[in-house]
UniProtKB/TrEMBL annotation:
It holds the Pfam family ABC_tran. SMART domains: AAA. It is found in: Cell membrane. It comes from Metallumcola ferriviriculae. PANTHER family: ENERGY-COUPLING FACTOR TRANSPORTER ATP-BINDING PROTEIN ECFA1, HEAVY METAL TRANSPORTER. Belongs to the ABC transporter superfamily. Keywords: ATP-binding, Cell membrane, Membrane, Nucleotide-binding, Translocase, Transport. The lineage of its organism: Bacteria, Bacillati, Bacillota, Clostridia, Neomoorellales. InterPro entries: AAA+_ATPase, ABC_transporter-like_ATP-bd, ABC_transporter-like_CS, ABC_transpr_CbiO/EcfA_su, ECF_ABC_transporter_ATP-bd, EcfA_1, P-loop_NTPase. It comes from the Bacteria. This is Energy-coupling factor transporter ATPase. Its main location: membrane. CDD domains: ABC_cobalt_CbiO_domain1.
Amino acid sequence: MLKVESLWHYYSRGEEQVAAIQGLSLGISPGEFVVVLGHNGSGKSTLAKHFNALLLPSKGKITVNGLDTADEENLWNIRQQVGMVFQNPDNQLVATVVEEEVAFGPENIGLPPTQIYQRIDEALSMVGMNEYRNYAPHLLSGGQKQRVAIAGIIAMRPKVLVLDEPTAMLDPQGRREVMDTVLKLNQQEGLTVVHITHFMEEALHADRVVVMEQGRVAMQGKPMEVFLQVERLKELSLDVPQMVHLAHLLRQEGLEVPQQIMTVEQMEQWLVNY
Ligand code: ADP
Ligand code: MG
């Protein structure tokens, strides 16, 4: 679905050239749920912007469903296939009513009103916001706003959803709402998801975790494979999910905690039977 081949990205900072992405290669399959981790400045947002041609490669190549992002003729098609959600919900919402917000994209591509209406219905249902369709977005919580932003993208029927720290400004409740929504879109609608976050717990349900450092892939694998490398993650200035950390400490105390324990529920169950 997404193919990154030896990508380099340079930003100009005065006289200086900053290499934000340094020869990164990565493939993401249709329907995959990939979580991207990495400390500040590791190049996550730069990579995200390459997925829908907001940025173009300085060197190397990116294709979306076989379409080269550097080819201007593909731009419209790529933008339609890859939807982006950013950190600040307030910067993404432009309309005064929720349903107008979701209608914006479909109207822009000239769909007839009946189809627009259908898409609003469908998109708001998918994010669980149908009952708020006549609300003013500024009256919603952060989590609800992000769900509306996601609905606005879903209404365009993309194949890929790229989310750049969509939960960073939300409270725990809002984070849960957004994560549940994204997981559902992946599992039920088969949407390919690239989710960038600094909350380790959000990586637990991913098909694959990709850890970035200095514009390269430092580690990748199933969540368990990545999170069990506690020392390596520390070197990369990253935490591990709470329960992985607890299991690590308990093992140091001599308890034989099974390796697959990553969530509170799993830990609870194991302890109850211990
Ligand atoms: P992350 O999202 O992982 O925090 P970014 O992709 O935002 O990382 O940034 C990667 C590197 O590129 C950092 O060193 C950052 O300072 C630099 N950078 C990002 N955006 C710009 C820009 N517009 N101009 C110059 N340098 C930038
Ligand atoms: Mg970023």
